[in-house]
Design goal:
The chain contains 13 helices and 19 strands. It has 473 residues and is of the alpha/beta class. It has three domains: 139 residues, Rossmann fold (3-Layer(aba) Sandwich); 242 residues, tm_1862 like domain (pyruvate-formate lyase- activating enzyme, Alpha-Beta Horseshoe); 55 residues, Nucleic acid-binding proteins (OB fold (Dihydrolipoamide Acetyltransferase, E2P), Beta Barrel), CATH 2.40.50.140. The chain is globular, with a radius of gyration of 24 Å. About 1% of the residues have low confidence.
Length: 473
């Protein structure tokens, strides 16, 4: 039993810790869009921690309110401006409480629409392109200095330059926040698909050096990561230099990563079909750590539409590639991306997309109606498709895609798979994890199974998830 003095000291220490926590500056980050943005947001949080900012999930607590934006689809961009309006209200409330608030917008919307941000949200303090977020501390210091010397709250600073020096050189070591971690190895794109803004917002392709990637991977594994998902806008075009200055492809990198003791799983996304070479196919055959799940976007099944999209492959070439991969590893399951209603898409063109789905039988897929993006060639193409036609086609496509996804999941019943549990489920005693095929799986399991690979028998399945039970022993 504690003495009065010991009890007093314990309570005093607890109160001190609470006070310190309350006085720490906080950053609220909301992420839109792709997994690259998720990775970038994590690295921003790591970077700002060095400057005394703790991440919070409550916008009302944010000394910095940051939106990491996506410009792939129009609705994503509009959501940003809606959230900025909400941030302005929070900022006004905090000002009445005597609290300063910095509003930051970064990412692809800034790169594409910096002038629109100034017009529609002049209260934003800092705007950064996706290649410039390592400069946030520097710009933050300038904005705060400006506020100290001037009255009012004018628009701060914009930085949308394409930097020659890689932002990765300015970031702190990446540490695991769980058993699954993203690792960016490549950024930008040289393909210039006619519907896509990525080359204009993320710039030309850049591949990180082999040794830099391996160093970050080892840091992640040493701090608890079991699975690494390699990221890039066109990840399999990776051509990073090794320590001798020789360019190496992604297959070489995957082989090197597989040698890291403790790394159990390797994935990569998003890949471009025309850049899948024989070395990568061989990696899927020989490297057990490389998961048998491949996201391989085709976008459309018609050669006419693929050409209009400026995709560098035909439907038949895509099918031959799938055949080669399955010959190397018959366990591979494919997912894909589809765009319906691209300008000029006829009923026959759409039927060819349906035919591709029936041939490959994708186990997962993402499908969208074509959305015009200002500044892209497709936005001014003739024969834009009416919205009701796009909606009808998307429904037909999604019904078919979901039927194959459901069948694949049902076929998994009674199979035993290694599942990497990541978090608690909605119900008491339930955990949620992922199979080698990226399927969501829930099962009753002890909390100590989180961040571990556990053999699980599949006992039920729906279109979107699996139910399993932990294998005893």
């Amino acid at each position: 039993m504690l003495t009065k003095e010991e009890d007093y000291q314990k309570k005093s220490l607890k109160n001190l810790k609470v006070k310190i926590k309350e006085e720490m500056k906080k950053i609220f980050i909301k992420t839109f869009g792709c997994q690259m943005n998720v990775y970038d947001s994590k690295r921003i949080a790591d970077l700002m921690k060095k400057y005394g900012y703790e991440e919070t999930d409550k916008i009302s607590e944010g000394d910095i309110i940051l939106f990491n934006t996506c410009h792939i689809r129009e609705k994503a961009a509009e959501k940003v401006f809606s959230d900025l309006g909400r941030a302005k209200k929070v900022k006004n409330v905090r000002e009445k409480q005597g609290k300063d608030t910095i509003i930051v917008v970064m990412g692809c919307v800034v790169q594409a629409e910096d002038d629109v941000i100034i017009k529609r949200a002049p209260y934003v303090d800092i705007a950064l392109g996706p290649l410039a977020y390592h400069k946030l501390p520097e710009l933050l210091k300038k904005v705060l200095s400006k506020r100290d010397s001037e009255e009012g709250n004018n628009f701060g600073l914009i930085d949308t330059e394409f930097y020659a020096e890689p932002k990765f050189d300015y970031l702190p070591d990446n540490k695991s926040q769980g058993a699954c971690s993203f690792l960016a190895i490549q950024e930008g794109c040289d393909n210039f698909c006619t519907y896509c803004v990525v080359p204009y917002t993320r710039g030309i392709e850049y591949s990180r050096p082999i040794e830099d990637v391996l160093k970050e991977a080892k840091s992640l594994v040493n701090t608890g990561t079991l699975e690494i998902n390699l990221l890039g806008q066109n990840v399999n075009s990776y051509h990073g230099e090794d320590k001798n200055g020789k360019e190496r492809n992604i297959a070489y990198l995957i082989n090197k990563l597989a040698e890291i003791d403790g790394l159990k799983r390797i994935r990569y996304t998003t890949s471009y079909p025309a850049d899948v070479d024989d070395d990568l196919i061989e990696a899927h055959k020989n490297i057990k750590e490389l998961m048998p799940y491949l996201h391989l976007p085709i976008q459309a099944g018609s050669d006419i539409i693929l050409k209009a999209m400026n995709r560098r492959y035909s439907a038949s070439e895509y099918l031959r590639l799938v055949e080669k991969l399955l010959k190397a590893n018959s366990e591979i399951g494919f997912s894909s991306d589809f765009i319906v209603g691209f300008p000029g898409e006829s009923d026959k063109d759409f039927e060819k997309t349906i035919r591709i789905v029936n041939e490959v039988k994708f186990i997962q897929a993402f499908s969208f109606k074509y959305s015009q993006r200002a500044g892209t060639p497709a936005a001014i193409m003739k024969n834009q498709i009416e919205e009701n036609v796009k909606t009808e086609r998307l429904q037909i496509l999604q019904d078919l895609l979901f039927s194959y996804q459901n069948k694949f999941n049902k076929d998994c019943i009674d199979k035993t798979m290694p599942v990497l549990f990541e978090q608690k489920g909605r119900h008491k005693g339930q955990l949620v994890g992922r199979t080698p095929y990226m399927q969501n799986l829930y099962a009753e399991a002890d909390f100590n199974c989180i961040n571990k690979l556990i053999d699980v028998k599949i006992i039920d399945a729906t279109t979107n998830s699996l139910k399993g039970e932990k294998v005893k022993g």
